[in-house]
Write a structure and sequence with these properties.
single chain; alpha+beta; 3-stranded antiparallel β-sheet; 4 helices; 10 strands; 25% strand
């Protein structure tokens, strides 16, 4: 192959690389709506949305004056549980109080005016209550939502970013008003530059996707 052919091949490769970078650049420049910033310490530590029971949750079920019916159970992967006198009862997606009332209704066939209390001991929750982090986090995982949770709290939980993360190109996916919406979040600016405006409120069901840097 002569020098001219090598030069043409080299130019062609450079053009292809440039085109790929331009396409990637256009993807980076996609317009995303912005989320309002959230304070690091909420001014009102009020309760969040009611906790919903999910598969894998550990429950303590107390039946007043019936210790033989009071048990500790784990919600099965199918979202149901079993306990004395009740073979199969749907639990997932209910609050502890709602589940207690359902158990009372079932037990009412066997005992008079049962009084039931359900206490969650091991919190996992359904997917709608979890915050899922995927991609270039040190420890990607699904986190049970906690009241007043912010982006900073989530990143502390997953151990921050990896050295390969493009933190300022992270995307937060949220289901709002029956639609899936995407927001740009600037994790690197928050963690490395201390940009307080980059700290945003997290809601149950949010999914945080952290891409890898191509550099």
């Amino acid at each position: 192959m002569d020098v001219t052919s090598v030069g043409k091949s080299l130019r062609t490769m450079l053009l292809l690389v440039f085109a790929a970078v331009m396409v990637s650049g256009c993807a980076w420049m996609k317009s995303y709506p912005q989320l309002p910033s959230a304070p690091f310490v909420p001014p009102d530590e009020g309760p969040g949305p009611n906790y919903l029971i999910g598969p894998g949750d550990g429950l303590s079920i107390f039946v007043w004056r019936n210790p033989e019916l009071s048990v500790q159970v784990t919600v099965r992967p199918d979202g149901r549980l079993s306990m004395p006198l009740i073979d199969d009862l749907s639990a997932t997606g209910k609050t502890p109080s709602q589940l207690a009332r359902d158990i009372e209704e079932k037990l009412n066939v066997y005992i008079q005016s049962p009084i039931v209390t359900v206490v969650v001991q091991n919190f996992i929750g359904p997917f709608s209550q979890q915050v899922r982090v995927v991609g270039e986090a040190t420890n990607p995982q699904a986190i049970p939502y906690r009241a007043n949770m912010t982006l900073l709290d989530v990143m502390i939980q997953v151990g921050g970013l990896t050295q390969f993360a493009a933190g300022d190109r992270a995307t937060l996916i949220r289901f709002e008003d029956g639609k899936q919406k995407e927001y740009r979040v600037h994790i690197e600016s928050l963690l490395k530059d201390g940009d307080i405006k980059a700290n945003v409120k997290i809601l149950p069901g949010d999914v945080l996707i952290i891409p890898e840097s191509i550099l």
